[in-house]
Specification:
Structural class: mainly alpha
Distance between the termini: 55 Å
Low-confidence stretches: 1-12, 354-372, 382-431, 459-475
Helix content: 55-70%
Shape: globular
Strand content: under 5%
Largest sheet: 2 strands, antiparallel
Length: 475
């Protein structure tokens, strides 16, 4: 008989469980699981269901959660913290306003919990120290607990999981994790970061569709000329092949070209979905790429990393010219302010750090180069093509038009320092793996178009000097 309580020495951490129940994250998890009678009653019933399962892996998960409940003297709070940690690792934000898959969780709470524990087992050690600390901080804030308490609970559970799970249990847990992650539009690779999971873990049809979802609104928001330009200039599709294709077929071909460009040249390797493709590129650029970060945020981080590397390659004369171009464009938009090149670089770096929303409200609403000015600089750099160029096939001189104002984004044929910088970037990768020379400019184009779409749909405001953006007033 498994005795989880005596597997570890109890941490004997004490918290106010009454206060715990009223925290934002406890409420979000309660809503997700439909714990109408309170989380404490739900946890007791839920643990009994897990322990009563004939599936040995599920049974052991229930006993591990029970061990955390009793062994740390936290009561029901310990299992709740663990489930929340796993859901965050799966990409579920567990905020008061955004909680995914409530209906699916209510239908099968056991699958939801096992996936969460699987995400901890397979995903926690895959994170670097800063990523782990970010999640600990998020949980601490959400539950009004110290980081030490959160870490104690996670360490306790991880030790127990490694002690009690056999090889068959581990494989079963991975299957449960993959199935539930698919309902969130994530592959198991986004949780584990393991190449074998990227190449060989095949999602079902529903998971495939969900993982493509971040891409489709952007393709739909592009003009037909823009989609064709992406296919011809980035993916090297013969222009004659496109003449007989309707709009839906063009979009579908673009999706397929992305997937084929991201495929590893290994026997029986699967075609990665868009969610994976963005994370493959982010990983190669040494950017955060785990499931906890929305695909759209990872995509933008890639764009800003490329921008940052491009800026680094400009000489003094080009830097001065860029600063003047930014300044003149801002003046055209009724913002009279001197702009230095260093300010532009700082904005790009800060915006590039906005992965997972850490700086989002600040970057786009704070005074200075952030806020109204920063947003204009972003639109200028990204959408008007001053910087974003790929340069991997010099001489083609192809451009895509963005926006009604005639803004341009070059995707090939760039000359000068920008082209050199990105040309070096593309040649640094192995030709046996994904075709990053295609993927990087394609994702930059998609991310830039997403910025344009989001910018055009946001509420406009008077950006003249002295006028305060209403979003700033909320800070």
């Amino acid at each position: 008989m498994l005795d989880p309580v005596t597997t570890l020495t109890a941490g004997k951490v004490v918290i106010d469980v009454a206060t715990f129940a009223t925290t934002a994250m406890a409420k979000a998890l309660s809503s997700m699981y439909g714990a109408a009678k309170g989380l404490d009653a739900f946890v007791d019933r839920h643990l009994d269901e897990l322990k009563g399962s004939p599936d040995e892996a599920i049974n052991r998960i229930g006993r591990v959660l029970e061990g955390a409940k009793n062994g740390l003297y936290l009561g029901y709070a310990a299992p709740v913290i663990l489930i929340a940690a796993g859901q965050i690792l799966l990409g579920n934000p567990l905020s008061a306003t955004t909680t995914f898959l409530t209906a699916a969780t209510l239908t099968n709470p056991i699958a939801s919990t096992c996936a969460a524990i699987g995400a901890i087992y397979f995903g926690w050690k895959a994170l670097n120290k800063s990523e782990q600390q970010a999640i600990i901080s998020s949980l601490g804030e959400g539950f009004a607990l110290t980081g030490e308490v959160i870490k104690d609970v996670l360490d306790f559970a991880l030790k127990m999981l490694h002690d009690v799970l056999g090889r068959k249990d581990v494989q079963r847990l991975k299957t449960l994790l993959a199935e539930f992650a698919g309902k969130l539009g994530r592959s198991i690779y986004s949780v584990t970061g393991q190449l074998i999971d990227l190449v060989y873990s095949k999602p079902d049809a529903t998971s495939d569709v969900l993982a493509q979802r971040p891409l489709r609104p952007v393709l739909s928001g592009m003009s037909e000329a823009e989609v064709k330009g992406l296919l011809v200039q980035v993916f090297k599709v013969n222009d004659d092949k496109l003449k007989q294709l309707g709009r839906d077929d063009l979009n579908g071909l673009c999706e397929m070209e992305l997937r084929e460009a991201a495929t590893y040249s290994l026997p029986a390797a699967k075609l990665p979905v868009y969610d994976d493709i963005v994370r493959i590129v982010a990983r190669r650029l040494r950017l955060p790429h785990r499931a906890v970060i929305p695909t759209e945020d990872v995509e933008k981080a890639i764009l800003f990393k490329v921008l940052e590397r491009s800026l680094d390659r400009l000489d003094a004369k080009q830097k001065d010219k860029l600063a003047l171009q930014v300044q003149e464009t801002l003046r055209d938009r009724a913002i009279d302010r001197k702009v230095t090149f260093d300010e532009v670089v700082r904005f790009v770096k800060i915006a590039g750090m906005d992965v997972g929303g850490s700086f989002g409200p600040f970057v786009m609403t704070a005074p200075g180069m952030a806020g109204a000015i920063g947003l204009n600089v972003l639109q200028l750099i990204v959408l008007e093509g001053i910087i974003v160029t790929s340069g991997y096939a010099a001489g083609l001189g192809a451009v895509l038009g963005f926006g009604t104002g005639g803004a341009m984004l070059a995707v090939a044929g760039a000359a000068g320092p920008v082209g050199v910088a990105l040309g070096l970037l593309f040649t640094a990768y192995s030709l046996s793996g994904p075709a990053f020379r295609k993927l990087i400019p394609a994702i930059c184009v998609i991310a830039a178009k997403r910025v344009e779409i989001e910018g055009s749909s946001s509420t406009s405001f008077d950006s003249a000097p002295g006028h305060q953006d209403p979003r700033e007033a909320r800070l």
